[in-house]
Write a structure and sequence with these properties.
This protein has two helices and 13 strands, in the order E-E-E-E-E-E-H-E-E-E-E-E-E-H-E. By secondary structure, it is of the alpha+beta class.
Length: about 180
């Protein structure tokens, strides 16, 4: 029994949900998203107020996709109403970020600048040189791009230099001078 999959998804006002076979389309004030689910799963709009996700049988794979599909559709509904945002912070002397057109430029201690192309559907901004804000309706795209930017220079444990999430805690290690 999937506890997540059995919960109905409430459709907020201003959001239109259409189901065409296995394709679920959600349209709201921030944009439009769609998802094609597995054949073991069925989705039904109940009275235009909630979405019910059901599975055809009780085998292991169907149970797994039941909760997954419900979570993905819930993320789509939340994405077109509120949107998702990740904030990154750049720590280090001379480390900075800038946006040039559709390219995020990172200067993080390498010989050359690192250029990351901003994917379609994402709004990336740099309020100052040491912060990067990534916004979008698709939770997966926002998280993936934030992870790719962070992976350019992960925070190191000795001085804490690198790219990190704003709320991320970096465990610091004592250097070799401690033993003396």
């Amino acid at each position: 029994m999937s506890r997540i999959g059995n919960q109905p998804i409430v459709i907020p006002s201003g959001v239109n949900v259409s189901i065409d076979g296995s394709l679920i389309s959600v349209e709201g004030p921030l944009g439009k998203l769609s998802y094609s689910h597995r054949p073991e799963i069925t989705a039904v709009v109940d009275d235009g107020k909630q979405i019910l996700i059901q599975r055809s049988n009780d085998n292991k794979e169907s149970r797994a996709y039941h909760g997954l599909t419900r979570a993905l559709v819930q993320n789509m509904v939340e994405g077109v109403t509120k949107g998702y945002e990740k904030k990154l912070e750049i720590v280090g002397v001379g480390y900075l970020a800038a946006i040039q057109g559709e390219i995020l430029q990172l200067r993080v201690g390498f010989a050359n600048e690192v250029h990351k192309t901003i994917p379609q559907g994402l709004d990336v901004s740099c309020p100052d040189q040491t912060h990067v804000h990534i916004k979008g309706t698709d939770k997966q795209k926002v998280g993936q791009f934030a992870a790719e930017v962070r992976a350019v220079r992960k925070p190191e444990p000795y001085k804490g230099k690198g790219i990190r999430y704003v709320d991320e805690y970096v465990r610091r290690k004592a250097g070799k001078a401690v033993g003396a």
